[in-house]
Amino acid sequence: MKKVVMYSTQVCPYCQMAERLLKSRGVEIIEKVLIDREPGRREEMMSRTGRRTVPQVYIGDTHVGGYDDLSALDRKGGLVPLLESA
């Protein structure tokens, strides 16, 4: 399974929903980058993604986007294949 990185904050409900969705699809480890604990990482997130909001999810080198993007990918059947691709 590919590495999952999620830019997040400690109190974001959409981040928690994204984490639950990923875990329900078999992801055991999510590397969380807490931008409220490490403010410098917010700039990193914005330069990598072009977005200001959390969560921002990466599966491998693929930027999936936020919770709505992740959920839409799952509804289309694309999340599990992306997680499992080599």
CATH superfamily: Glutaredoxin
Radius of gyration: 12 Å
Level-2 CATH architecture: 3-Layer(aba) Sandwich
- Written as H for each helix and E for each strand, in order along the chain, the element string is EHEHEEHH
Which CATH first-tier class would you pick? Alpha Beta
Helix content: 40-55%
Low-confidence stretches: none
Structural category: alpha+beta
Under CATH, the topology is which?
Glutaredoxin
Describe this structure in words.
With 86 residues, the protein is an alpha+beta fold. The chain has one domain (4-84): Glutaredoxin. It has four helices and four strands, in the order βαβαββαα. The protein has helices spanning 13-24, 40-49, 67-75, 79-84; strands at 4-8, 30-34, 56-59, 62-65. The protein has a four-stranded mixed beta sheet with strand order 2-1-3-4, sandwiched between helices. The model has no long low-confidence stretch (mean pLDDT 95).
Descriptive tags:
Glutaredoxin, four-stranded mixed beta sheet, 4 helices, 4 strands
